[in-house]
# Entry
Amino acid sequence: MAKPKIHYQCQACGATHPRWQGQCEGCGAWNTLTEELPTVALSPAGKTPQKSGLVLEPLQRQEAPSAQRMSTDIGELDRVLGGGLMVGSVILIGGEPGIGKSTLLLQAMINLSRHHDVAYFTGEESLDQIAQRAVRLHAPHDQVMAAHTVHLEDILTLLDKPTAPKIVVIDSIQTLHAGAIESAPGTVSQVRYSTHMLANLAKKRGITFFIVGHITKEGTLAGPKVLEHLVDTVLTFEGDRRHHVRLLRASKNRYGATDEIGVFTMTSSGLSEVTNPSSLFLSTDQPPCPGHVVTAIMEGARPLLVDIEVLVCPTPLAIPRRTVVGWDVNRLHMLVAVLEKRLKCPLSSKDIFMNVAGGLKIQEPAADFAVCVALLSSLRDTLVPKGTVVFGEVSLSGTLRSVPHAYTRMREATRLGFTRILAPKQDIENLEGATYVPCEHLGDVLGSTDT
Ligand code: TYD
Ligand code: MG
# Structure
């Protein structure tokens, strides 16, 4: 019998190479190639099945999807799932270790176990550890059935029965080992094969799977681009482990929108839902301070008001420091250059420290304007008037560009009692309860914020 041919597969993007090399040609990542053996053929090669049994059905016979949703009793999770858990769907939930994936799923399973049979398979922790976590959640958990295993075949056999639980957690896909694949657990072929088999079973038996997947330090689900097309929904659980805020996002959802986010805080008794997220990122009890500005950002479809703090101070160093937490340092460099060139602000001889409150990472340029106002406020040691919200994108010429969802941002600001809104001129829509300052160029800020 011919020896099976070994190939090398990139653990980041799944590209295969005939021989080992340091850098993947597919994605450019270094040291990600591992040896993979070919999959054992599942059916005898070359044979075509005698009878396929395939029939065509009219589409209208399928049940309406809305009838097949289950509530997890966690409103923020249901919202991100598109209005509840779809029966027979496969949901991949990714996140860094320690962020709270197991906690979130255990809470969901405890809630679901009141009305459904649920099973929790863990390959990472002992059953005792899971039970200890359940005790911390202060909820009756004796209806949640659990097993510790790393063998995929054991799970498939147990679940492939009509009486088996219909809601299942696999924690995590990287610890599962499929006997049909010779490579180690966690490799691309293992996670892909295991997910494929679980997804098949989900469709066959109507089982809903939550599959936990770890995120690599580059921020991708390990092995994962390769998993995304196998599952119905991909959720990511994010947050800074030093802060208690956690965001749940859907990056793919066959049964709902992908711009929803769920907001939680990690407490001593599990994850708690946050229905008014802006309250988390605003320090209402602090005395006003130069360099402190509130901006309105969008997280998915939700507006959030966030505190931005900037400290500008003289530097003893030849090359001044630019330290940023929660934003893109290159964007800060760009705005500093715009302020230097267009407004003649002497920032090149100053250290700049910037922080976004609450451990949030702002991704969008709509915070540009607020950062510029904060820089000027700190540089000149003057306060931004209380109750002010600033947003807008800044171009290299210093003019303000319109941002998406401006109305939603302004409505959130007025709802939370802010009375003065600085925004790009074209975005201003007058809502009741606030004064609007339409801005065309950064130069307008000099007159309008007393900075
Ligand atoms: P965990 O769900 O184990 O994270 P993951 O599965 O993503 O690796 O949660 C880990 C962290 O959450 C851990 O550091 C302890 C903390 N935690 C709390 O703060 N409160 C709690 O009630 C629980 C259960 C965990
Ligand atoms: Mg875990």
In short: Residues 41-47 have pLDDT under 50 and may be disordered. The chain has three domains: 1-37, 69-275, 280-446. The first helix runs from residue 75 to 81. The domain at 69-275 is CATH 3.40.50.300 (Rossmann fold).
